[in-house]
Amino acid sequence: MEKIRIGKDEPLYEIKGIRPMSPNVMQIVFADPVPISWGDITIYTEDGTEAATLTGYDTVYRDDGQTVYLSNDGSVYQAPDTPDGPGEPPEPYVPTLGELQAGKRREVAAECEGLIYAGINVALADGSVEHYALTIEDQLNLFGKLSQITAGATQLEYHADGQPCRYYSAADMQAIIQAAMWHVSYHTTYCNALNMWIAGCQTTDEVAEIFYGADVPEQYQSDVLKAYLVEITAGYRRAVVHNPGDGLARQEPLDDVPSGRHLFRGVGTNQ
């Protein structure tokens, strides 16, 4: 089955077909998840080979659920005229519970990904605080640095966002890696719990009330999420903070995290 990517950092979406409907309108039939934002469309063959990139199709011309029509000139679908005048607009479509659940899963997944990619601030041994993005490429780079530390490296090259590359001590790099792992793992765990909550909804109103950042009902909290919530409620963060006296990582109390709330500020790992 063919796949497409929207933009550069979005996931791949399986499609059943893609074809032009007119010089300015493209039809895409999705197999399951449907993107929530649009941009350049890169098409991949079944074996993963990049086939083509379509630009300019960033306006939703018409949305028929799993089939989406995009225009490259900003146009949107209008009901055709009839002999008696403009066509009557169709009755508003009422999505099913399953469709709303699928849409909500896409919504929280996109929010989770965005917050992970936005990255973290980490306090280093010299007292400075630097910001590090955590795109997939950044995460892979950090895992590579972890391998270097394990092999005995004492200084490692890396860079904060918008800063030149420089050497970091092994302790500082370990602080960055630990903070990144906490950030990614927490958001992944929290998003998983939201998906369990979404699956457990019995009405469309229940689905509509769910949003990224909401307190997950206890029956949908995994043991892993409960452990994170205990940690947050206790007022501690697992972002690594160095003791200038010994260069070792330690936990530092965090007084401004409300009990049981999910904060997504991108500061340290207070996520």
Structural commentary:
The protein has 271 residues and is an alpha+beta fold. The protein folds into two domains: 3-76; 102-253, no CATH class. The protein is 31% helix and 27% strand. Helix 1 runs antiparallel to helix 3 (170-200) and helix 2 crosses helix 3.
Summarize the amount of helix as a percent range: 25-40%
What string, H for helix and E for strand, traces the elements in order?
EEEEEEEEEHEEHEEHHHEE
Radius of gyration: 23 Å
Biggest beta sheet attributes: 7 strands, antiparallel
Q: Largest beta sheet: what is the strand line-up?
A: 5-4-1-2-3-7-6
| Number of DSSP strand runs | 15
Q: Whole-number average pLDDT? A: 82
Contiguous runs where pLDDT drops below 50 for at least 5 residues: 237-271
The tally of helices reads 5
How far the N terminus sits from the C terminus, by CA atoms, comes to 37 Å
Gross geometry: globular
Short description:
The protein is of the alpha+beta class and 271 residues long.
Give descriptors for this structure.
271 residues; alpha+beta; 7-stranded antiparallel beta sheet; 27% strand; disordered C terminus
Give the arrangement of secondary structure elements.
Elements: E1 3-6, E2 12-22, E3 25-30, E4 41-44, E5 50-54, E6 59-64, E7 67-71, E8 81-82, E9 85-86, H1 97-118, E10 120-123, E11 129-132, H2 136-150, E12 155-158, E13 166-169, H3 170-200, H4 204-208, H5 223-233, E14 236-242, E15 249-253
Antiparallel strand pairs: 1-2, 1-4, 2-3, 3-7, 4-5, 6-7, 8-9, 10-11, 12-13, 14-15
